[in-house]
Amino acid sequence: MRVGAWRWWMGSTVTAAMMAAAALAQPGATTQLEFVNTLMPQPAQLTIGEGWLPVAPGFSVGFDRTHDERLETAVQRDLRRLENQTGVMIQDAAPGAAATLTISVDGPGEAVQGVDEDESCTLDITPQHALLHAATDVGAIRGLETLLQLIQADTRGFWLPAVSIQDAPRFRWRGLMIDVGRHFEPVSVIERTLDGMAEVKMNVFHWHLTDDQGFRIESKLYPRLTGMGSDGQYYTQDQAREVVAYARARGIRVVPEFDIPGHTTSWMVGYPDLASAPGPFSIERRFGVFDPVMDPTRESTWEFLDKFIGEMAEIFPDAFMHIGGDENNGVEWQHNAKIQAFAAAHDLHGTAAIQAYFNQRLLPILTKHGKKMIGWDEVLTPDLPKDVVVQSWRGFDSLAAGAKQGYSGILSAGYYLDHMDPASAHYRVDPLPANSGLTPEQASRILGGEACMWSESVSPRTIDSRIWPRTAAIAERLWSPRTVTSEDDMYRRLAVESLRLEALGLTHISQESASLRALAGTPDIDTLRPLMAVLEPVDFDTRSKWSQHHGVTTLSPLDNLVDALPPDPPSQHDFGDLMSTYLQDPIDHPEIEAALQETFRSWSADPRRMELLSTSPQLAEALPRAQQLAEMGTMGLEALSYLSSGVQPPPGWKAQKLAILDEAQKPVALTRFTILPAMRALVNEVR
Amino acid sequence: MRVGAWRWWMGSTVTAAMMAAAALAQPGATTQLEFVNTLMPQPAQLTIGEGWLPVAPGFSVGFDRTHDERLETAVQRDLRRLENQTGVMIQDAAPGAAATLTISVDGPGEAVQGVDEDESCTLDITPQHALLHAATDVGAIRGLETLLQLIQADTRGFWLPAVSIQDAPRFRWRGLMIDVGRHFEPVSVIERTLDGMAEVKMNVFHWHLTDDQGFRIESKLYPRLTGMGSDGQYYTQDQAREVVAYARARGIRVVPEFDIPGHTTSWMVGYPDLASAPGPFSIERRFGVFDPVMDPTRESTWEFLDKFIGEMAEIFPDAFMHIGGDENNGVEWQHNAKIQAFAAAHDLHGTAAIQAYFNQRLLPILTKHGKKMIGWDEVLTPDLPKDVVVQSWRGFDSLAAGAKQGYSGILSAGYYLDHMDPASAHYRVDPLPANSGLTPEQASRILGGEACMWSESVSPRTIDSRIWPRTAAIAERLWSPRTVTSEDDMYRRLAVESLRLEALGLTHISQESASLRALAGTPDIDTLRPLMAVLEPVDFDTRSKWSQHHGVTTLSPLDNLVDALPPDPPSQHDFGDLMSTYLQDPIDHPEIEAALQETFRSWSADPRRMELLSTSPQLAEALPRAQQLAEMGTMGLEALSYLSSGVQPPPGWKAQKLAILDEAQKPVALTRFTILPAMRALVNEVR
């Protein structure tokens, strides 16, 4: 249990007593330095040695063999981060002289990074010297991130611990998908996301570039794709190439997705002949599954796709091209007599069979342009060749079934960031559980997984807090040994990782306050903090239903209270952790009882909080939450008092309090409380 | 005096008593709506009418005459901001139907926006309807910003007050210069800065693109300019065109500066023949005035400049090109025998005379490429034609002298953002004071002014807080009537303006916390807030001397405590305001006395604060500041006690306290306190 951890989401009321308690509980940073492992992801092997290597003026860096421009740039970039962190200027080692840090790389790695790129590295640090060795640039890039994460500080300066690390990823495919179709994200957002991915050693950026709601990549051959299907929000080919280069510089592949044959309304606005219904089409503004689907029976469709894929293959060098293939409801095919006649003539029974035909025709086009196919679960039909890769949104069973048939796959079920699940839930999802029942050969076909950022409710302003820091937990699941499973330790390190991500320029922490200031119309939002710290967005289903009911579209604003709140805020784990430690033995933890009392007091009905919530309609929606928090504060103080005094509560007390918690469980202003399980446990403990 | 205002820089300790006092002192937002004027800049004329126009579902917008794409885009952009602020979807008015807001524009305005563009507009709002009228797109863009700033909220929703506004700028040239030579700023930073400029109705972005430390714009004719002179940090021509278009869309001109003949080291790295000394040259890493200067005696220099300026003239359509012309120390000219011989032959005595010759040769080249010349004070030599514009870093007298000779000019002395002066100091600087002594004709030659962001100590991460919100005060000085001079009212509105700027995506508020989290290595920085809220960076001279002494270069990190702190934080004005109100009558202001007591208590020696300051070397530097703050907290409580009780302090008390304040005046960790004048006044009041 981390006594320090509960303090930062508590908001503003901190007493001297609490601070003294906290100071006592934490090892003073001014005393002897002790290595605190905050590595994320955890390395495959770590051995701690004796002593420290100072990061101080004179620290120099050199290469013991040749290195290429990518490695040079990566080292310069990371040294600049090291300098910014420490204020210490790092020098290039003089020719022939021994460097403090030697970087030793066997070769540059693959010309186009592939699934089998060697990302391993070793890091040996002694009090005199550090040696980073890797087979490839990419391995060195991974090792440099580890090096930066190892640094510890005290008043005297900055230090690297003596350690020996042998590291390599558990899975070869560790990805993040961003859907820029439903809401567009500018290049600057994509690039800072790539920075975050590199920080946690992810290696695939899956760019969902087209969907019903928008076509986001320039085609010079088919200019009406963006000209009529993007509202002007798209990437030029130059920008896409810039992103590919930016990713490669960080050891990240870019897999573009062109979702076909369904999810294609935006294509058909400018090119209605692609469709299986007469049209005309307009950009879809709603969310869900829609009817427009490509017509596989027209040769013009295949000519179009051949040229388009050829054009895209020039921009995206990765071996894979993602063709989507999901959620085709078959409606247009069923209503098109010509397509039905074609299906009958070719013995294609039903939507799945026609789509299998579609994929059979598509595959040689991809092959012609040098691309392997990857698609969502639905692409997996019996006659597909074995080098098609399946991305499973359905779950491990679907993935395992594919593996048994000889198909490689990646897992995304359980990694949907828009579901608003806590990091711990994602962390528990293993693409290859210990009890998988797969043979070693079958197991080797599970390539890894991908976090998915679907963007119904995501804007450039809010995307960072939807992706980070939770994705770091997924990245660790995909990199670190299967045995690394402690959720408490993950959350301890995630809190530090979150700051490292912020230092890279991500806005996942700062945006909450900025949004609250905007909503409240004042910089003085301290009084809101105790409330906001224990609220998070409702789950995906609740918001979806609400959005449908309220006619929310892609054009609706995303600047409400729910958008300001990050999912899985620190209170969720830390308050639960604090409470469960307390409940193990209420009498023996006076300092935790004091902390809980102070927290409960900070929840009290605060006239200034109420007033501030009344300043705007969006905040006023949350007024019931402030009232409920106050009730829970009172409830908490009463429960502590009963537990410490041994006095019994009056009859009906528990039932009344549980009823309040039941009421607090209901969504208000699309928010939910993070503290209810812990409060329920507390109330139930009172007898 | 704003009782609410002191709360948000006070940090974390807020008591119920304070909150109750604050609630009592502020008109409840839930009671009857009252128009609060937060316009920045203030309009030329404002008349408040009766009633309110609701911004609610059904609010529609239409044009009563034709409009072009620029206006359409601007309206869409601003309506999207309105939607984000209110959550209300705004509709296009149905054809033929009456719109809630009608936009009526006479014509698009100049094809290339010039100094004399008509920026005037009128805004008439009744409870039924709003009418925005302007002669040009640019005027409409100004009026839309006013409209957005007028919106008020209560629990029921959002409202526009019934008003009648006639607006036009006092000065035609209202600029912001950014030096991207000493530290580069990416396009994303430039674009969000342009958003901020448009918000406060500024109309010139002066882009200082070249200096000794870097050449930041691609030349296809002379690729070694960036190839060897930029460290790879430069704008492509496409990016520069994008910025020009982005600015034009917001009614902002882009004036590029190519600083010659001095400040040109970066040119000479790739093209040493331009120089007056043999070379070779390398990119300058230090700060100051350096010797490299172009050789005006070689014809090759003029061929180079002719071609280069022609190339740049294609990218930057503005009528003006800034040629710098400042701080040429003449050393290379003095040491070059050929140049000295040339000078003697041409009767050019001294550096100024040679530079006058340089400008004489330069002028026809600019003219040939359709450009007028603007330069710093030094360009003003007797033989220059009258359409050269002078930018004065020397002050009003220099500007007035030019105006008397017939030269137009703009003022920058007094608007140097890197000097770390408070907004009030800039606000007091008027380019055309009432007592200027100029004739109306001469006065008309004072075109306006420019805020200057020189970048010795500025990074992409910190630039926002160096520019904003102080620049909004300068923007108001340049737009609003001369009679708008209340500093208290300016600060009241600046606090709101600061939030509006944040809502545009600027990071001037959020960066401080993000930087403190990075320095402290923990998200739990509440205990630092009371200290950081009353610290700001030292003035320019103090930092310059420190930097020289410590060998600071362009490559040095800019992530120290001083970089995290914004200049002129709210505490500076608000604490002074609170104290002066209190001191007017200490007995009659119990609620202010209570607020001061609470503030002083929040300054007490806090073991957790001390511990946190010990976690990193950069923070540990500020430990003496925490001690001094604690001493001032004690001093403050004692002073309040003496004043309220009428008891006399012991002998020597005052002298001892003043000595503490003297000590606190000295720079520590490149920081200074904002509260010293108020504390001094308090101590002096004790008798």
What's the quick description here?
The structure is a homodimer of 687-residue chains. Chain A is an alpha/beta fold and 687 residues long.
Name a few traits of the molecule.
687 residues; alpha/beta; TIM Barrel; 3 domains; eight-stranded parallel barrel; 15% strand
What does this structure look like?
Two copies of one chain form a homodimer. Chain A is built from 28 helices and 19 strands. With 687 residues, chain A is of the alpha/beta class. Chain A has three domains: 45-167, Chitobiase, domain 2; 174-484, TIM Barrel (Alpha-Beta Barrel); 510-685, no CATH class. In chain A, strands 1, 2, 3, 4, 5, 6, 7 and 8 form an eight-stranded mixed sheet that branches. An eight-stranded parallel β-barrel of chain A has the order 9-10-12-13-14-15-16-17, surrounded by four helices. Chain A has a two-stranded antiparallel sheet with strand order 18-19. In chain A, helix 2 links the parallel strand 2 (60-63) and strand 3. In chain A, helix 4 packs parallel to helix 6 (237-249) and helix 22 runs parallel beside helix 28. Chain A starts with 15 loop residues before the first helix and ends with a helix. Residues 1-31 of chain A have low confidence and may be disordered. At the A-B interface, helix 1, helix 2, helix 17, helix 18 and helix 24 of A face helix 1, helix 2, helix 17, helix 18 and helix 24 of B.
